[in-house]
Specification:
There is one protein chain. This protein is of the alpha+beta class. It contains 18 helices and 15 strands. The protein has 2 domains: 360 residues, paralog of FGE (formylglycine-generating enzyme), CATH 3.90.1580.10; 158 residues, no CATH class. The strands form 5 sheets. A 5-stranded antiparallel sheet has the order 1-2-5-15-8. The protein has a 4-stranded mixed sheet with strand order 11-10-9-14. Helix 14 packs across helix 18. The longest helix has 66 residues. It is globular, with a radius of gyration of 28 Å.
């Protein structure tokens, strides 16, 4: 392989986004938003720097701008769509979230339903909500707290930090903030609002919502963009699911299959272009210096695929939920914060990272050496409401679920309709109902062994048996449809896995050939050659990581396929034959797709028979990729 050929590979990488300008749209941004650019303003950009330093070129389509008290600043939100136009049970709303690497016990991979706050308008297809484009800034928080008087708001916020005598980092943050305000007021006000107690955060939302509803201009914007059956939306903290769905790229990422990525960048070396972390900033590690690492919103970092800035790093962001040991279940603790902060190592900053914010702070009792850290009684000392200098806010515009009696009646009708169609069978509620049905069937079987019944009781039992039989027939038909859907989904993910492996093999082979040429003297080991080898190594590693991420999704889909089939091989085989017939009808003869479809059937059947393990599946994909590479 010559250097000319190697540079050709680099040209292809550059066309895919390698080496792009810092504030161009990232390569992972969905194709649907490709026409949009986000142009960041310089650090001395005036008031706009406090709320929208990177304006969108098409805000009318993607963003919601709400006025604020005082008239100087705005709140800027990005529209986030969820699959489906219905209030209930669109199957596409069941999405996979969590950490596929399995190294975080508090963020396991799990299926959760994501829902929107507002219905689609005329000509649209999907429900949606709005999430803050940036972390709420100190200037915005002060404008709310001071009813438009930023100075009054600052005094209130700083007084709260000063009062946290048992939390030295909070008081240090207050001092540092005053220094920054004196040095460059606009820059200081463009930093994230942080160090607030949970009650102060809720008070900010209440003050803003009350102001907006009383302000005609603000209410008009809300009424035109974010209402449910006439009820206007309101600011609140996002749920964990809303936050992670938006962070992963939302509906466009589901469509282009980038949703499973755990970070917005594809090359580890690109981390610093998207997130602020002390491990990448060469920052000091002394505890008394930690409050200084956070950057202004937007900063000089690229947005996530959905157009959100500082979604990872900088400050972690409070959610509306208690910290459960898993996202959707488990022991309840403090409040969940998402996205990590400047304190986190870059390797930990993923969309799945979940942190716990303590609503209250305390000092521990005296330690064994006798040095008193709290009360000498051995009891912890209360240090006031919890304040963390690395915890901030990213608001969401949400809605109520029962805006009017008329709407409630409509929803009740829809609930009955969807139940008869069986479309809720795959939702958590539907799966629970199936479990209840199994209990009912067991009770019915037990009743057959009781003493003779009356004619009326026999008639009731017969009626129940008929209804159960009808339900079984309906569930069997639904299962067939689910088997078909999951078979196609599994083969599609398997197809991705093989192609990722082929890509990894390509870069591995190309690098081996170039190294051989260098050893033989056919190619000079200059800067171009070194850069080519480095790039090939990174692309090989990224392809292997993408394979592992897709494999986690694949394993989940195949296990679901085995589960919905009720361990019935016929359902799996029929689904395979149906998908094969579909490929044939479309003239699709790609051997990779054929292999992927066969593998999905084999692996689902292996769960039933216990013949293969997921490690065996992984080895099979590796072998398939090698065989394909050797023969093509």
């Amino acid at each position: 392989m010559t250097v000319r050929a190697a540079l050709g590979v680099l040209a292809c990488l550059a066309a895919a986004g390698f080496g792009r300008p810092l504030h161009a749209a990232p390569a992972s941004q969905p194709a649907a938003a490709a026409a949009e650019t986000l142009a960041c303003r310089p650090a001395d950009g005036g008031d706009r720097m406090m709320f929208d330093p990177c304006p969108s070129t098409v805000p009318s389509k993607t963003e919601l701008h709400l006025p604020m008290p005082g008239g100087r600043l705005e709140l800027v939100f990005r529209r986030v769509e969820v699959p489906g136009a219905h209030f209930w049970c669109d199957r596409g709303r069941l999405v996979t979230m969590g950490n596929g690497s399995g190294n975080d016990p508090f963020a396991p991979v799990q299926k959760v339903p994501v829902a929107g706050a507002f219905p689609p308008g005329e000509g649209a297809e999907n429900w949606f909500y709005y999430l803050g484009k940036y972390e709420l800034t100190l200037g915005q928080a002060a404008a709310i707290a001071g009813d438009g008087d930023i100075d009054a708001g600052l005094r209130s916020i700083l007084a709260g930090l000063d009062a946290a005598r048992g939390q030295p980092e909070a008081r240090q943050l207050a001092g540092w903030t005053r220094e920054q305000l004196a040095a460059n007021r606009t820059l200081a006000l463009s930093h994230p609002a942080r160090g607030l107690s949970l009650s102060e955060v809720q008070q900010l939302f209440e003050r803003y919502n009350s102001w907006c509803y009383a302000d005609r201009a603000c209410l008009t914007v809300i009424a035109n963009a974010a209402t449910l059956d006439g009820a206007p939306g309101f600011l609140r903290l996002p749920t964990e699911i809303e936050w992670e769905h938006a962070a992963r790229g939302g509906l466009p990422a589901l469509r282009d299959r980038s949703y499973s990525r755990s970070q917005p960048y594809q090359q580890p070396a690109d981390f610093h272009r998207y997130a602020v972390s002390r491990s990448e900033e060469g920052a000091p590690v002394a505890d008394d210096d930690l409050v200084t690492g956070v950057r202004r919103i937007g900063g000089d970092r690229l947005p996530s695929p959905g157009g959100f800035f500082d979604i990872l790093g900088n400050v972690q962001e409070l959610s509306a939920g208690m910290f459960l040991t898993e996202m959707s279940q488990g022991k309840a603790g403090g409040i969940t914060a998402r996205g990590g902060s400047w304190q986190n190592d870059s390797s930990l900053l993923t969309y799945a990272l979940r942190s716990e914010f303590r609503p209250y702070a305390w000092l521990p009792p005296a330690n064994p050496s006798g040095v008193s850290l709290g009360e000498p009684s051995g009891l912890p000392t209360f240090a006031g409401p919890g304040r963390d200098p690395f915890t901030g806010i990213r608001p969401v515009v949400g809605s109520v679920n029962k805006p009017t009696t008329r709407f409630v009646r409509t929803v009740e009708s829809l609930a009955a309709e969807t139940a008869t169609r069986g479309c809720r069978d795959v939702t958590p509620l539907g799966l629970s109902v199936r479990s209840l049905q199994a209990v009912a069937e067991e009770a019915l079987r037990s009743s057959a062994n009781t003493p003779p019944r009356s004619d009326r009781a026999n008639a009731l039992v017969a009626e129940v048996e008929q209804k159960l039989a009808a339900a079984h027939r309906r569930i069997a038909e639904e299962n067939k449809q689910l088997c078909r859907m999951l078979m196609r989904a599994g083969s599609s993910v398997a197809d991705n896995q093989i192609r990722f492996l082929l890509e990894a093999l390509y870069f591995e082979t190309a690098a081996t050939e170039l190294e051989a040429s260098i050893r033989s003297g056919a190619v000079t080991l200059d800067d171009h050659a070194r850069e080519t080898l480095d790039t090939m190594g990174r692309r090989n590693g990224q392809s292997l990581r993408d394979f592992e991420t897709e494999f986690t999704v694949y394993e989940d889909v195949v296990r679901q396929l085995a589960a919905v089939s009720d361990r019935d091989a016929a359902c799996i085989n029929d689904a395979h034959d149906d998908a094969a017939a579909y490929f044939a009808s479309k003239g699709i003869s790609d051997p990779i797709k054929t292999h992927s479809l066969r593998a999905t059937r084999q692996h689902a059947l292996s769960i039933i028979g216990g013949s293969l393990s997921p490690d065996d599946w992984r080895d099979q994909f590796m072998n398939l990729a090698r065989e394909y590479r050797e023969t093509h």
